[in-house]
Design goal:
alpha/beta, Barwin-like endoglucanases, Pyrimidine Nucleoside Phosphorylase, Chain A, domain 2, Aldehyde Oxidoreductase, domain 3, 18 strands
């Protein structure tokens, strides 16, 4: 290790789940130690150590030759004051890269190899390029069912785990791909009002226009400390929080930071991601929602059944009571796509507003009913009616209000969407025979969602609805003119809607 001291500087750059260090090209340590850009280095200060990827700069406004700069994440991890002395050294290569190279060659890995990879990722020994290599190799050569189990267990064992000291801790998860599918924000208050424990730690959007955490953030705080999360769940029997602050299966968060820009979501990685997070959050009973439709993530019933078997295989071996429901994925759920519009839909259902989207209400009641049937005191088939009574009586909105207050109180916000908008109209008479989930999500993201919470798409028509030429199909909202123009151009090339004869509406594959 270099004995020369460098002065620590905080460089205000968010490098999103990657530790990055900055040295000036004229730094004597950089020149003497033979560092190269993008190499990994160790940073030492007062007995503490972090690993980081090195960036080399020529601008003394960023770092001076006698300074070491750290990105926001690395600075927070080192936990030292700006201006203290630090030393740097070459980092040892991650031993587990040998296993990654095996996977690149299409070979099967064992549990110890997956654990080694997960451990090195948690310890920041992987750059984003190396994580990308692992993800792509896992996706291309695929993981067999034992490898999915090994990866899930490795991701679970390299993070913290919550223990609620209760026999039944419920949760639900949808594999995604359906815009507007904010059922969790209805299921949690219904199930919690029934008295069951349902601590819902949710993700932010990866490739969608909004995740549950993004939409819940319209109503209250979602970045909760582990202590506060524990207090809220004990008090209210449920929560709707972002899972990134609890250090649950942290490998997953780091891999997602690479998956997001690459737009990849392989089957094995998806199952390991979902189940490791749920087990780390202390879940004992889990309901998985697999939507099936022509433009959903899962497009055929045979694929859904295969996925269900894989979920059940891994869940069974990790002592998780897991049930899978196959649902209608032919079109978006609800009317809104994007945080503000989805939050509006959720509150309309909770408030029993006559204008509330019926499909969102019904699907949420079906899912909540299945979870309530995990309760040994509830007979099979009774869950739906119990869930409906909780919603209709106002107990669900009362519980949601209590959860919102406990998480930081209701934000002073309306659900008014972005001020810039345009309508997409029907080009001919007929019936809506297809709504492309992927394209509608793409339009909402191009319009600015989820970063701009008031951006998105408001649907006026759904499958089977009759339309006349010139009638509005949906409205696109944006906050900024550039996003408005991009969305308008995208809709002009492909509206995401098809109009035709009524007998061409696709059949739903539903196996509730």
């Amino acid at each position: 290790m270099s004995t020369e001291n460098l002065t620590l500087k905080r460089v205000g750059i968010d490098t999103y789940h990657e530790n990055v260090a900055y040295l000036h090209r004229e730094c004597s340590v950089y020149r003497a130690e033979g560092f190269q850009a993008l190499s990994k280095i160790e940073i030492h200060a007062n007995g503490l150590q972090v690993l980081a990827v090195l960036n080399v700069v020529d601008d003394e406004n960023i770092v001076k030759p006698n300074e070491l700069g750290l990105s926001e994440q690395a600075f927070k991890q080192l936990n030292e004051k700006e201006g203290c002395f630090v030393q740097v050294n070459h980092a040892e290569p991650a031993d587990s890269m040998d296993a990654v190279r095996k996977k690149i060659n299409g070979e099967r890995l064992n549990y110890d190899e997956y654990f080694s990879i997960a451990k090195d990722i948690v310890e920041n020994r992987y750059s984003k390029m190396e994580m990308a290599a692992f993800l792509v190799a896992s996706g291309q050569s695929s993981l067999d069912r034992d490898e999915v189990l090994f990866l899930t267990k490795a991701m679970l064992e390299t993070g913290e785990k919550l223990d609620w000291k209760e026999l039944l801790v419920a949760d639900k998860h949808c594999i995604g791909g359906i815009p507007g599918n904010r059922t969790s924000m209805l299921v949690v208050p219904i199930v919690a009002a029934h008295g069951m424990l349902i601590p819902k730690t949710s993700s932010r959007a990866i490739t969608s226009p909004s995740g549950t955490a993004d939409t819940m953030e319209m109503l209250t705080e979602v970045n909760l400390t582990p202590d506060l999360l524990n207090e809220i769940v004990r008090q209210e029997r449920g929560c709707l929080a972002w899972g990134g602050t609890a250090k649950l299966a942290p490998v997953d968060d780091k891999l997602i930071s690479v998956e997001r820009p690459l737009g990849i979501d392989s089957r094995g990685q998806m199952i390991a991601s979902i189940l490791s997070k749920k087990l780390a959050a202390g879940s004992s009973h889990l309901l998985i929602d697999i939507p099936v439709g022509p433009t959903a993530k899962v497009r055929h019933m045979r694929e859904a059944l295969s996925l269900r078997k894989l979920f059940e295989f891994v869940g069974d071996r990790l002592n998780l009571h897991l049930e899978v429901v196959i649902t209608d994925g032919r079109q978006p759920i609800g009317r809104g796509i994007g945080p503000a519009l989805e939050a509006r839909d959720v509150m309309q259902v909770l408030e029993n507003d006559p204008d509330a989207p019926t499909d969102l209400r019904q699907k949420s009641l079906q899912l909540a009913g299945r979870i309530i049937e995990f309760d040994p005191d509830v007979r099979g088939g009774q869950g739906y009616s119990i869930a409906r009574d909780i919603l209709d009586s106002g107990r669900a909105i009362a519980k949601m209000t209590a959860i919102i207050d406990a998480q930081g109180g209701r934000k002073k916000t309306s659900f008014t969407p972005g001020k810039l908008y345009f309508d997409v109209i029907a080009e001919n008479d007929g019936t809506i025979i297809d709504i492309d989930n992927f394209q509608m999500a793409h339009i909402a993201r191009i319009a600015g969602a989820p970063m701009d919470k008031r951006a998105g798409v408001d649907l006026y028509k759904k499958l089977g609805d009759k339309v006349v030429k010139g009638e509005s199909l949906y409205r696109v909202h944006a906050e900024f003119n550039s996003d408005y123009q991009f969305a308008q151009n995208l809709c002009a090339s492909n509206s995401g809607f098809r109009i035709g004869p009524a007998d061409e509406v696709p059949i739903s594959f539903v196996a509730f």
